[in-house]
Design brief:
mainly alpha; Arc Repressor Mutant, subunit A; Tetracycline Repressor, domain 2; 70% helix
Length: 217
């Protein structure tokens, strides 16, 4: 396999090191000179590859979600578990990775959304795309779980997937404060096993009701 040209390699190095710094230090806490130093990139080379720091951060967001979705798609394609177990396993893997990082880094998307999501149009557009891509992987799983009676069906699958993500991001914030994934894991299990579970009168969808539910695109 041919090695990338130096200019391309420099760009890749900037994105890789910039992603790590943004996840750990945030957007405002990361300076261009630090990114250049960590990347061993020539001084002044940043603007040869990116129009601005905002464009750089937006591309990092795009790469982050594309890689995460690709890994998730590969896992879902080969897994044979039921929908609830699949959701639990994907998020448990994320929790394990957070613990490996010392519970200080968290989710790049959530970090940047909280810091600059309201003030940076380029990054806001990339964050919106990222949330849409991620949620689209889980709406069909919630729909399938509803048909099997694993999840309540008085709330539509799109809303369940969105609610789950919101609770998860809140759990990540608490994880960083406490330095432990314990509350994050509790949130995961509580949402899946209790809050989103069907009640006695809210069991599996009958065939006629299931047939009227729109399929996810």
């Amino acid at each position: 396999m041919a090695r990338p040209r130096r200019s391309q390699q420099t760009r890749e190095d900037l994105l890789r090191e910039g992603s790590a710094l943004l996840a750990r230090q945030g957007y405002h806490g990361t300076g261009l000179q630090e990114i250049l130093a960590r990347s061993n990139a020539p001084k002044g080379s940043f603007y040869n590859h990116f129009e601005s720091k905002e464009a750089f951060a937006a591309e990092i967001i795009d790469r982050y979600i594309d890689q995460l979705v690709s890994l998730t798609d590969k896992y879902l394609a080969r897994a044979e578990d039921d929908p609830r177990t699949l959701i639990r396993n994907v998020y448990s893997r994320l929790s394990t990775e957070f613990a490996r990082q010392g519970c200080v880094q968290g989710c790049l998307l959530g970090n940047l959304a909280a810091e600059i999501g309201a003030s940076n149009p380029l990054c806001r557009a990339s964050l919106h795309r990222a949330y849409e891509l991620w949620q689209s992987r889980f709406v069909p799983l919630f729909e399938a779980g509803q048909r099997l009676g694993q999840f309540r069906h008085d709330i539509d699958a799109q809303t369940l997937a969105s609610l789950f993500w919101n609770a998860w991001e809140g759990g990540i914030t608490r994880m960083k404060v406490e330095g432990s994934t314990e509350s994050l894991d509790t949130t995961l299990n509580l949402m899946l096993d209790q809050l989103m579970a069907p009640t006695a009168s809210n069991g599996p969808l009958d065939a006629a009701t299931a047939a009227t539910r729109p399929a996810s695109s």
